[in-house]
Design brief:
Layout: H1 21-25, E1 28-29, E2 34-35, H2 58-62, H3 79-82, E3 84-90, E4 101-107, H4 110-113, H5 117-128, E5 133-137, E6 143-144, E7 146-149, H6 150-153, H7 155-160, H8 163-179, E8 183-188, E9 191-195
Parallel strand pairs: 4-5
Antiparallel strand pairs: 1-2, 3-4, 5-7, 6-8, 8-9
Helix pairs in contact: 5-8
One iron/sulfur cluster binds near residues 41, 56 and 57.
């Protein structure tokens, strides 16, 4: 979870509801607050909601997933329902994608992926528009999830415009993530440290 300005564009009548995905899955490494990946925040109440809502860290105040911002993503895209957390992301993308804002798709439930035609269609649109897209997978506690860059991996499948081909390639990207070396994360001196 990084500071961003996605709250400026929030959809006015859309709320998180029962979703608590970001407070469980994401890591936070800001000066005022740290949280390990795939580790439920100690401030998350058992029935949902933040126990320190009024004074929650700035990073939490400013961060929202893309579902809270994009009308194009309908109600079924809420991360706890869809099994996919969509975020805006600025990364060190390879050329010709350097400097562009992209999307990160964190797969929370790979069983739901096989029927997620909406995700496949959204990816066709983004990749055809040259938007960099990342798939992230890995739900082990205190472990950094692995990431695959989709624009190259899906290139041929996107050309076929075949949803099943795209979903097949997404599953291969998940398998590739599963084979990547695990990076454990710990907290040291109030900061996250990554152990190879
Ligand atoms: S993942 Fe999105 S919908 Fe879910 S709690 Fe976080 S901001 Fe709200
Ligand atoms: S401090 Fe509150 S808003 Fe921030 S991650 Fe924890 S529970 Fe969620």
């Amino acid at each position: 979870m990084n500071n961003n300005t996605s709250q400026i564009y929030l959809i006015s009548n859309r709320q998180c509801g029962e979703c608590t995905v970001c407070c469980k899955v994401l890591s936070i490494n800001s000066k005022e607050f740290v949280k390990l990946p795939n580790n439920t925040c100690s401030n998350l109440k058992t029935n949902g909601g933040c126990a320190i809502y009024q004074t929650r860290p700035t990073v939490c105040q400013n961060w929202f997933c893309a579902w809270r911002n994009l009308p194009e993503l309908d109600e079924n895209w809420r991360p706890d329902k869809s099994g996919v957390l969509v975020e805006f992301t600025e990364e060190n993308f390879p050329p010709p994608f350097s400097g562009r804002v992209g999307f990160r798709f964190t797969i929370l439930d790979k069983k739901k992926l096989k029927n997620n035609n909406k995700l496949a269609k959204f990816l066709i649109k983004q990749i055809n528009n040259g938007v960099p897209c990342l798939l992230t997978f890995g739900l082990e506690k205190n472990t950094e999830p692995a990431t695959a860059f989709l624009n190259f991996a899906l290139n041929n499948a996107i050309k076929t415009n075949d949803i099943n081909n795209i979903l097949h390639e997404l599953n291969k990207a998940i398998e590739a993530c599963e084979k990547m070396p695990k990076i454990k994360v710990a907290i040291e001196n109030g900061q996250l440290i990554y152990e190879n």
